[in-house]
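Handout for the seminar on molecular recognition.
Each group receives one record of this type.
Step one: identify the two inputs.
Step two: read the structure output and locate the region that could contact zinc ion.
Step three: write two sentences on what you found, then compare them with the reference statements printed after the record.
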Amino acid sequence: MDFSAQHTWENYDPRGKVLLRLNKIRALIPPDVRSILDVGCGNGIITNALAENYAVTGLDPSSTALSYVLGPSVQASISSIPCGNRSFDLASCNEVLEHLSTSDFEQGISELKRVASSYLLIGVPHREQLAKKFFRCADCGHSEHAHGHLRSFTLGYLDALFAPDYERLNVSVFGIRERDIPAWLLRCKRRQGQWFVPPPGSTCPVCGSAGFMHQSTPATKFCNALNLIISRPRPYWLLALYRRKSGLE
Ligand SMILES: [Zn+2]
Protein backbone atom coordinates (compact mmCIF):
# COMPACT_ATOMS: atom_id res chain seq x y z
CA MET A 1 0.00 0.00 0.00
CA ASP A 2 1.24 3.46 -0.86
CA PHE A 3 0.41 5.60 2.18
CA SER A 4 1.52 8.80 0.45
CA ALA A 5 -0.92 8.36 -2.47
CA GLN A 6 -4.22 10.20 -2.61
CA HIS A 7 -6.19 7.16 -3.87
CA THR A 8 -5.15 5.19 -0.76
CA TRP A 9 -6.97 7.64 1.50
CA GLU A 10 -9.94 8.39 -0.74
CA ASN A 11 -10.80 4.67 -0.79
CA TYR A 12 -9.48 3.76 2.62
CA ASP A 13 -12.66 2.46 4.24
CA PRO A 14 -15.02 1.33 1.48
CA ARG A 15 -16.91 -1.08 3.75
CA GLY A 16 -17.24 1.14 6.81
CA LYS A 17 -15.14 -1.09 9.08
CA VAL A 18 -13.53 1.93 10.69
CA LEU A 19 -16.89 3.09 12.04
CA LEU A 20 -17.24 -0.14 13.99
CA ARG A 21 -13.82 0.50 15.49
CA LEU A 22 -14.79 4.11 16.25
CA ASN A 23 -17.69 2.95 18.42
CA LYS A 24 -15.38 0.63 20.39
CA ILE A 25 -12.84 3.43 20.80
CA ARG A 26 -15.50 5.81 22.11
CA ALA A 27 -16.63 3.20 24.62
CA LEU A 28 -13.10 2.65 25.96
CA ILE A 29 -12.01 6.30 26.37
CA PRO A 30 -12.11 7.09 30.13
CA PRO A 31 -14.39 9.96 31.28
CA ASP A 32 -11.50 12.13 32.56
CA VAL A 33 -9.86 12.39 29.11
CA ARG A 34 -9.91 15.83 27.47
CA SER A 35 -6.96 15.82 25.04
CA ILE A 36 -5.97 13.09 22.58
CA LEU A 37 -3.02 12.62 20.22
CA ASP A 38 -4.07 10.28 17.39
CA VAL A 39 -0.77 8.78 16.25
CA GLY A 40 -0.77 7.51 12.66
CA CYS A 41 -4.17 9.09 12.12
CA GLY A 42 -4.17 8.58 8.34
CA ASN A 43 -6.97 10.49 6.70
CA GLY A 44 -8.55 11.27 10.07
CA ILE A 45 -11.74 9.20 9.86
CA ILE A 46 -11.45 8.51 13.59
CA THR A 47 -9.63 11.77 14.43
CA ASN A 48 -12.36 13.95 12.94
CA ALA A 49 -15.15 11.98 14.64
CA LEU A 50 -13.49 12.12 18.08
CA ALA A 51 -13.00 15.88 17.68
CA GLU A 52 -16.73 16.30 18.37
CA ASN A 53 -16.03 15.42 22.03
CA TYR A 54 -12.30 15.87 22.63
CA ALA A 55 -9.38 18.17 21.82
CA VAL A 56 -7.79 15.86 19.23
CA THR A 57 -4.52 16.37 17.38
CA GLY A 58 -3.79 14.08 14.42
CA LEU A 59 -0.24 12.94 13.71
CA ASP A 60 0.87 11.23 10.51
CA PRO A 61 3.97 11.23 8.26
CA SER A 62 1.83 11.74 5.12
CA SER A 63 0.87 15.32 4.22
CA THR A 64 -1.66 13.88 1.75
CA ALA A 65 -3.39 11.95 4.54
CA LEU A 66 -3.29 14.97 6.86
CA SER A 67 -5.05 17.13 4.25
CA TYR A 68 -8.25 15.28 5.25
CA VAL A 69 -7.82 16.01 8.98
CA LEU A 70 -10.08 18.91 9.92
CA GLY A 71 -8.53 19.93 13.26
CA PRO A 72 -4.95 20.43 14.49
CA SER A 73 -2.38 18.09 12.98
CA VAL A 74 1.35 17.35 13.10
CA GLN A 75 3.32 15.86 10.21
CA ALA A 76 5.75 13.46 11.86
CA SER A 77 6.69 9.83 12.33
CA ILE A 78 5.70 7.82 15.38
CA SER A 79 9.43 7.23 15.94
CA SER A 80 10.06 10.93 16.63
CA ILE A 81 6.99 12.77 17.94
CA PRO A 82 7.64 16.52 18.21
CA CYS A 83 5.50 16.96 21.37
CA GLY A 84 6.50 17.38 24.99
CA ASN A 85 6.45 14.71 27.68
CA ARG A 86 2.93 13.93 28.94
CA SER A 87 1.39 16.57 26.68
CA PHE A 88 -1.87 14.66 25.98
CA ASP A 89 -4.24 12.87 28.38
CA LEU A 90 -4.41 9.94 25.97
CA ALA A 91 -2.37 8.81 22.98
CA SER A 92 -4.21 6.55 20.56
CA CYS A 93 -2.55 4.41 17.92
CA ASN A 94 -4.70 2.31 15.59
CA GLU A 95 -3.65 0.17 12.62
CA VAL A 96 -0.08 1.43 12.88
CA LEU A 97 2.16 -0.81 15.00
CA GLU A 98 1.75 -3.85 12.74
CA HIS A 99 3.26 -1.85 9.83
CA LEU A 100 6.47 -0.59 11.49
CA SER A 101 10.06 -1.65 10.90
CA THR A 102 11.87 -2.87 14.01
CA SER A 103 13.62 0.44 14.75
CA ASP A 104 10.48 2.54 14.19
CA PHE A 105 8.52 0.06 16.28
CA GLU A 106 10.83 0.20 19.29
CA GLN A 107 11.15 3.99 19.16
CA GLY A 108 7.42 4.35 18.52
CA ILE A 109 6.46 2.40 21.64
CA SER A 110 8.68 4.60 23.83
CA GLU A 111 7.35 7.76 22.13
CA LEU A 112 3.73 6.75 22.83
CA LYS A 113 4.59 6.14 26.48
CA ARG A 114 6.37 9.49 26.68
CA VAL A 115 3.74 11.83 25.20
CA ALA A 116 0.74 10.41 27.10
CA SER A 117 0.14 11.73 30.60
CA SER A 118 -2.40 9.06 31.61
CA TYR A 119 -3.64 6.64 28.96
CA LEU A 120 -2.73 4.72 25.81
CA LEU A 121 -5.36 3.24 23.48
CA ILE A 122 -3.81 0.70 21.11
CA GLY A 123 -5.53 -1.08 18.22
CA VAL A 124 -3.89 -3.93 16.28
CA PRO A 125 -4.95 -7.12 14.48
CA HIS A 126 -5.41 -9.89 17.05
CA ARG A 127 -3.11 -12.93 16.65
CA GLU A 128 -2.96 -12.29 12.92
CA GLN A 129 -1.72 -15.23 10.83
CA LEU A 130 0.58 -13.12 8.67
CA ALA A 131 1.46 -15.86 6.15
CA LYS A 132 -2.18 -16.24 5.16
CA LYS A 133 -2.21 -12.82 3.48
CA PHE A 134 1.00 -13.01 1.50
CA PHE A 135 0.62 -12.31 -2.22
CA ARG A 136 3.02 -13.49 -4.93
CA CYS A 137 3.82 -11.40 -8.00
CA ALA A 138 3.07 -13.31 -11.20
CA ASP A 139 6.01 -11.67 -13.00
CA CYS A 140 8.97 -11.41 -10.59
CA GLY A 141 7.86 -13.82 -7.86
CA HIS A 142 8.15 -11.24 -5.10
CA SER A 143 6.08 -12.11 -2.04
CA GLU A 144 5.01 -10.07 0.98
CA HIS A 145 2.00 -9.29 3.18
CA ALA A 146 -0.73 -7.66 1.11
CA HIS A 147 -1.32 -4.90 3.67
CA GLY A 148 2.32 -4.42 4.67
CA HIS A 149 1.92 -6.05 8.08
CA LEU A 150 5.28 -7.02 9.55
CA ARG A 151 4.34 -8.34 13.00
CA SER A 152 1.54 -10.11 14.81
CA PHE A 153 0.20 -9.35 18.31
CA THR A 154 -1.20 -11.30 21.20
CA LEU A 155 -2.65 -9.52 24.23
CA GLY A 156 0.27 -10.77 26.34
CA TYR A 157 2.80 -9.34 23.88
CA LEU A 158 1.01 -5.99 23.86
CA ASP A 159 0.90 -5.90 27.68
CA ALA A 160 4.63 -6.62 27.84
CA LEU A 161 5.43 -3.80 25.40
CA PHE A 162 3.87 -1.18 27.67
CA ALA A 163 4.95 -2.65 31.01
CA PRO A 164 6.13 -1.70 33.55
CA ASP A 165 5.13 1.96 33.03
CA TYR A 166 1.55 1.18 31.95
CA GLU A 167 -1.03 -1.36 33.09
CA ARG A 168 -3.97 -2.61 31.07
CA LEU A 169 -7.38 -1.31 32.18
CA ASN A 170 -9.66 -2.70 29.49
CA VAL A 171 -9.64 -4.72 26.30
CA SER A 172 -12.00 -5.56 23.46
CA VAL A 173 -11.64 -8.22 20.75
CA PHE A 174 -14.16 -7.55 18.02
CA GLY A 175 -14.86 -6.92 14.37
CA ILE A 176 -14.93 -8.95 11.18
CA ARG A 177 -14.35 -12.62 11.76
CA GLU A 178 -11.56 -14.41 9.93
CA ARG A 179 -10.34 -17.99 9.76
CA ASP A 180 -6.77 -19.12 10.23
CA ILE A 181 -5.49 -21.88 8.00
CA PRO A 182 -3.06 -24.62 9.11
CA ALA A 183 0.44 -24.19 7.67
CA TRP A 184 0.29 -27.52 5.83
CA LEU A 185 -2.95 -26.56 4.13
CA LEU A 186 -1.55 -23.15 3.18
CA ARG A 187 1.50 -24.88 1.64
CA CYS A 188 -0.81 -27.15 -0.29
CA LYS A 189 -2.66 -24.18 -1.80
CA ARG A 190 0.57 -22.41 -2.71
CA ARG A 191 1.97 -25.48 -4.45
CA GLN A 192 -1.11 -25.21 -6.67
CA GLY A 193 -0.37 -21.51 -7.29
CA GLN A 194 -3.04 -19.99 -5.06
CA TRP A 195 -1.90 -16.99 -2.99
CA PHE A 196 -3.76 -14.12 -1.33
CA VAL A 197 -5.00 -11.50 -3.79
CA PRO A 198 -4.14 -7.89 -2.84
CA PRO A 199 -6.79 -5.12 -3.07
CA PRO A 200 -7.79 -3.89 -6.57
CA GLY A 201 -5.29 -1.43 -8.03
CA SER A 202 -2.33 -2.94 -6.14
CA THR A 203 0.97 -3.34 -7.95
CA CYS A 204 4.11 -5.30 -7.10
CA PRO A 205 6.47 -3.03 -5.09
CA VAL A 206 9.49 -4.63 -6.81
CA CYS A 207 8.59 -4.76 -10.53
CA GLY A 208 5.33 -2.76 -10.74
CA SER A 209 3.33 -5.62 -12.24
CA ALA A 210 -0.41 -5.74 -11.56
CA GLY A 211 -0.51 -9.54 -11.97
CA PHE A 212 -0.72 -11.78 -8.90
CA MET A 213 -0.75 -15.55 -8.62
CA HIS A 214 -4.19 -16.90 -7.80
CA GLN A 215 -4.79 -20.21 -9.52
CA SER A 216 -8.04 -21.97 -8.79
CA THR A 217 -7.84 -25.74 -9.27
CA PRO A 218 -9.83 -28.68 -7.92
CA ALA A 219 -7.05 -29.11 -5.33
CA THR A 220 -7.25 -25.48 -4.10
CA LYS A 221 -11.03 -25.74 -3.94
CA PHE A 222 -10.65 -28.86 -1.84
CA CYS A 223 -8.14 -27.09 0.47
CA ASN A 224 -10.51 -24.14 0.95
CA ALA A 225 -13.52 -26.36 1.57
CA LEU A 226 -11.54 -28.44 4.07
CA ASN A 227 -10.49 -25.31 5.94
CA LEU A 228 -14.15 -24.26 6.29
CA ILE A 229 -14.69 -27.52 8.17
CA ILE A 230 -11.58 -27.61 10.37
CA SER A 231 -11.17 -23.92 11.29
CA ARG A 232 -13.36 -21.57 13.29
CA PRO A 233 -13.79 -17.87 12.49
CA ARG A 234 -12.66 -15.46 15.20
CA PRO A 235 -12.77 -11.65 15.58
CA TYR A 236 -9.87 -9.89 13.92
CA TRP A 237 -9.33 -6.77 16.02
CA LEU A 238 -7.79 -6.12 19.42
CA LEU A 239 -8.24 -2.78 21.16
CA ALA A 240 -6.56 -2.29 24.54
CA LEU A 241 -6.60 0.61 27.00
CA TYR A 242 -3.58 1.17 29.24
CA ARG A 243 -3.13 3.53 32.21
CA ARG A 244 0.14 5.01 33.38
CA LYS A 245 1.02 3.62 36.77
CA SER A 246 1.28 6.27 39.45
CA GLY A 247 4.66 6.81 41.07
CA LEU A 248 6.66 5.78 38.00
CA GLU A 249 8.60 8.51 36.23
ZN1 LIG B 1 6.92 -8.24 -9.27
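Reference statements: The longest helix spans residues 102-115. The CA atoms of residues 88 and 168 lie 18 Å apart.
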